[in-house]
Amino acid sequence: AGMSSEYLQIRDLRVQFDGFHAVDGVDLTLMQGDLRFLIGPNGAGKTTIIDAITGLVKSTGSIQKSGVELVGKKVHQIARLGIGRTFQTASVFEELTVLQNLDIAAGAGRSIWTMLRRRPAEIGDDILEVLDTIGLADHRETKAGVLAHGQKQWLEIGMLLVQNASVLLLDEPVAGMSGEEREETGQLLRRIGGERTVVVVEHDMDFMRSFATSVSVLARGKVIAEGSVAQVQANPKVQEVYLGT
Ligand code: ADP
């Protein structure tokens, strides 16, 4: 598969909770290197799509990454195929330092004690590079629990980067962030793009506007519009369910 081939192909994806159709026949196609915003009102099914891609909820239909079917696979199998996600509330090891968090993420499978005893000199270049990318080089010895809200989100993204995730699914990464943190997160998203495919679940239209990228709008479990920010904003269906509110 080349750079422009279909990378993440979702067809007729459905998720039901006790007969309620949270995701109701969704098609999404992403190319390698795409940055796609997924927007829609609360309850539209955005997080459930991420849960379905990562195997956290049972789904039907098809989700293929480079032709490999993910539906029916287990969470750890899907993670091993290079699919990583963040949560609305960052899940980092609060008692461990930034470096230790990254080291553990990078070395899943190695003994935690081996990692905790490692000296800085033994920390791999890949981890140091990620520290720079996520803007936490000056905080490598800081306990994750005392990081600012935005920094925790960046650390969580860093943990996906050291695992070499090629598809990143970010659930409202700028929620609760200050203006300055949003700005820095925007720069981070641009830095981690390139060959990686990034899906960002988002509410904030202002944040999206600074990216020349495509948006999929979800409402009641269905994709109701796709296009640039300007295109979806001008779409009456979108205004009705989302932007007009
Ligand atoms: P969004 O992320 O767009 O706000 P969600 O994907 O979180 O929407 O939720 C879609 C719908 O599915 C909502 O009505 C929500 O209440 C419902 N839902 C989500 N997860 C569950 C669950 N585990 N059990 C039952 N209903 C759920």
From TrEMBL:
What organism is the protein native to? Answer: Gordonia amarae NBRC 15530
* InterPro entries in UniProt: ABC_AA/LPS_Transport, ABC_transporter-like_ATP-bd, ABC_transptr_urea_ATP-bd_UrtD, BCA_ABC_TP_C, P-loop_NTPase
Domain (ABC transporter) ranges: 8-245
Q: Which Gene3D superfamilies match?
A: P-loop containing nucleotide triphosphate hydrolases (3.40.50.300)
- UniProt name for this protein: Putative ABC transporter ATP-binding protein
Q: Which domain of life is it from?
A: Bacteria
Q: Name one GO cellular component term.
A: plasma membrane
Instruction: Alphabetically list the UniProt keywords.
Output: ATP-binding, Nucleotide-binding, Transport
In alphabetical order, the GO MF annotations are: ATP binding; ATP hydrolysis activity
